Amino acid sequence: MGRRAPAARRTRPGTVVGGMLVAWALVIGALTWFLADSQSKSRASLAQRLDARAQLGAEFISLYVGDVLAHERSDALSWLQVPHVSERRFESTTAGLGLGAAVLLDGRGRLLAVVPAKPSLLGHVMTGKYAHLAAAVAGHTAVSDVVPSAARSLPVVALAVPFPAASGRRVFSGAYQIAHTPLGTYVSHMIATPGHRAYLIDGAGRVIAGPPAEPTTAQTLAQADPRLASAERAQISGSYSTAAGQQYFVRVPVSGTGWQVLVTVPESQLYASVDGPTKWLSWLAVAGFGLAGLEIILLVTRLMRSRRSLVELNAELDGLAHFDSLTMLKNRRATEEALEQTLSAARRHHHDVSVLLIDIDHFKCVNDELGHRRGDEALRHFAKVLESTLRTEDVAGRWGGEEFLVILPSTDGDGAVKMAERLRAVVANTPAPMRNEPPRPMTVTVGAAEWRAESMEELVARADEALYAGKSAGRNTVALAKPAVAGEPQLV
């Protein structure tokens, strides 16, 4: 009998299974971590998107308040500088600003005029009762918390501006029930997420404006929404529990005021795209050991979908970046788009269009002598002066560095020169305030060009040539560009 051949070495089944289990456990562990991380990042991205929208809302409110203060100061300078302000003149000025209540004080804080009329208050010093009036009498633009109006003691917020008069400094202060203004409507519709609630509150936690279905008059946030009030006292954003489920909130200060914007949304709505059925399907796919291959493919597909959603969300946030972060004017790209649209409309309807190219004179000296931070303050100051000087339909944008472009629809060359001269004079007479430094005088040189059916680039180039001519002539001047066939730019 021959010898039996030796048996082939067999691998133990337990070893194979164990190796497969270890390998699969590592794969599942890696996929589980990746899925959890992806969903966590998706939630964070959605929360950041809400934060960004609240921040934009606060910036809009700040710009709105600044615009109202500028209009108050402009009308006060136009109508309330006379030695004696009659009741009729004050009522007319107040009505022109769309106000139902306002006060006029002298440099000592004494009441000179009030709407609605209340003669018994005339001559009384108001600064002891109203902190914002005390600040304005001291020379500072001021925005109040919720205070009782002088004549009727209604809860209002007041915007106070000091201005010079023949008899010395005066203060004009207008009272507003924000909830009944377009700003109140904006606050209540600031966020599109279903179930959201938005509040504008003052420094003492009183509600200035809020959801349209709720009373806001003289109401504190603690009365309107106790759980939200408790949560926001502890942190500026985060989650808190209610009977209706978890809520996410964010609190953002409104620059230039003591106010804050508070936005809260149900987390079920905020995170619907990542906490819905796809979340659990993804986890079931990872857990489905028997259909591992198919479920891995489904998982990758879902992850790709989540990544695509993140890209789309980031693209939407990028689309919001149409404004220069320093001056809050349109940035160059948005300004070019606005100019192209204006020229397109002018071609169709045969309207005039002019542009102003503005350069702040000797701006480099501000940066060199006082530092870039002071230079930034000067740019912000000029942007505010520019916006307050232009018409509603005009468009202003930061062109680059210290250069700004203004689009003047329905304006010919003569009109452009008049606007440029007005702006030049206002800038020259409005020194830029500098923190811890004396105010800095500023001047600008302006190149104006009337559109002659040429391209946007050619129009801006002619304005630039006019600007260069104005600089060569000594700055602080306005130069009007003529068509190329008509000769050199004309100094005004």
Q: Can you put this structure into words, describing what you see?
A:
The protein is α+β, with helices and mostly antiparallel strands. The protein is 46% helix and 21% strand. It has helices at 13-79, 87-96, 131-137, 182-188, 221-224, 226-234, 267-270, 272-275, 277-287, 292-319, 332-349, 363-370, 372-389, 413-428, 456-472, and strands at 101-105, 111-115, 142-143, 147-148, 155-165, 168-176, 197-201, 207-209, 237-242, 245-253, 260-266, 353-360, 395-400, 403-409, 432-434, 437-440, 444-450, 478-481, 490-491. The longest helix has 67 residues, at 13-79.
Q: What can be said about this structure in brief?
A:
By secondary structure, the protein is of the alpha+beta class. Among the domains are: 80-176, Beta-Lactamase (2-Layer Sandwich); 332-491, Reverse transcriptase/Diguanylate cyclase domain (Alpha-Beta Plaits, 2-Layer Sandwich), CATH 3.30.70. The protein has 15 helices and 19 strands.
Share of residues in helices: 40-55%
At the first level of CATH, the class of the domain at 332-491 is Alpha Beta
Shape: globular
CATH homologous superfamily heading of the domain at 332-491: Reverse transcriptase/Diguanylate cyclase domain
What secondary-structure arrangement, pairings included, does this model have?
Elements lengths: L12 H67 L7 H10 L4 E5 L5 E5 L15 H7 L4 E2 L3 E2 L6 E11 L2 E9 L5 H7 L8 E5 L5 E3 L11 H4 L1 H9 L2 E6 L2 E9 L6 E7 H4 L1 H4 L1 H11 L4 H28 L12 H18 L3 E8 L2 H8 L1 H18 L5 E6 L2 E7 L3 H16 L3 E3 L2 E4 L3 E7 L5 H17 L5 E4 L8 E2 L1
Parallel strand pairs: 17-18
Antiparallel strand pairs: 1-2, 1-6, 3-5, 4-5, 5-6, 7-8, 7-11, 9-10, 10-11, 12-14, 12-17, 13-14, 15-16, 18-19
